[in-house]
Amino acid sequence: MPRRDKVAGDGPDRPVRTCVGCRSRTVQSDLVRLVAVGMVITPDTRGRRPGRGAYLHHDRRCLELAERRRAWPRAFRSRNGGGGTGWDVSLVTSLLGDAPRD
């Protein structure tokens, strides 16, 4: 998988976040913010929903990596966690369904 690090042309004023799937750091605008509503992971495309956010590239491979690594309880700092399988990612999957693969 290609690295998606912050490019040199981006200034220090642009926020940088880490993708929970591939763990690469990139500018926030290149990622999709996700929030947990109960055990449902919801895309927050406007960046306005309350709660702790996690960031993911708009790429199905990064979603698969996050699920394989069981990243959701850590990303959302959930105590009950539900293991790696108790999370509903159907809304994220539908958002990424039309995503072009790199």
How does the SSE layout of this entry go?
Elements lengths: L15 E3 L6 E3 L3 E7 L2 E4 L9 E5 L2 H9 L3 H4 L14 H7 L6
Antiparallel strand pairs: 1-2, 3-4, 3-5
What does this protein look like?
This protein has 102 residues and is an alpha+beta fold. Helix content is 20%, strand content 22%. It has helices at 60-68, 72-75, 90-96, and strands spanning 16-18, 25-27, 31-37, 40-43, 53-57. The model has no long low-confidence stretch (mean pLDDT 84).
Key attributes of the depicted protein:
single chain; alpha+beta; two-stranded antiparallel sheet; 5 strands; about 20% helix
Briefly characterize the structure:
The chain has 102 residues and is α+β, with helices and mostly antiparallel strands. It has helices at 60-68, 72-75, 90-96; strands at 16-18, 25-27, 31-37, 40-43, 53-57.
Largest sheet: 3 strands, antiparallel
Strand order of the largest sheet: 4-3-5
Order of helices and strands: EEEEEHHH
Number of helices: 3
Structural class: alpha+beta
Strand content: 15-25%
How would the global form be characterised? globular
**Radius of gyration (Å):** 13 Å
Q: What percent of the residues sit in helical stretches (DSSP H or I)? A: 10-25%
Rounded mean pLDDT score: 84
